[in-house]
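Side project, low priority. Logging it here so it doesn't get lost.
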Amino acid sequence: MKGIRSFFSMRRCRSGMAGCLLCAVMSLPAWCDTITTKQTTLEGRILENSAKVFVVETVAGEYVVIEKNRIVDFTDEPEADFYYRRGQFHLSKGDENRALLDFLEAVNWDSTHAKAREVIEAIQQKQKETKVNQGLLKAQQLIAAQEYRKALDAFQRILELQPDDQLAQEIVKQMSDTYTRIAFLYYDHCYDEGALFELARAEELNPNSAEIYYVLAKIHDNSRKYDLARQEYERALQLNPTHSMARSKLMELIERTRGRRF
């Protein structure tokens, strides 16, 4: 019969020739996994079963013709295991993407294949961590180049990867800091309306950021709203008592407005 697809592991003889197998077996089942001789083990599946030979695909992607009268033993195994074994082969060669496709195919054949599911989860987690780390590096590079909007987009893409809660919280804080950086640029270019809008976005993400209220205080200070400025400098210092610029500006404001009514 032709067209039988089976799994197997076979051992090569000393000469290394796949066809030089040792003994005979009268018949083979439609599914098999291990075909045994004396030495090396090859894993794969039977693609074609003729009267005298098998045409075999190994997990390494080789196609081998095996004489039936040289086979001594075999063990049944389901098709899902071929894809699992081939996935392990690709994984051993460092090809995670090809391995992942095979492990997914194993689960497609057998949704209860625990080993394949375990490896799939491990590969996907590793790939996600790699993407997250690459995204963080890219975002930091964009911030260093003052490409703040692009940095925010990079942070958002990282959040879409659903990192763990602790990292997600840290990313949200960095996004808040980035909005605050934009706000300061707007303030520095006398665009207070835009600065206030960006500070509101920053505060929504991280209301415990002292820098938000420091920049807000500077806007009020520059607009001669000294009571509001003092309030925001003090709030910045409550959140971060070591914020030296907020403390310095607050002292300057107190000195400048001593005896004034505002």
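Brief comment: The chain is about 55% helix and 10% strand.
Revisit when time allows.
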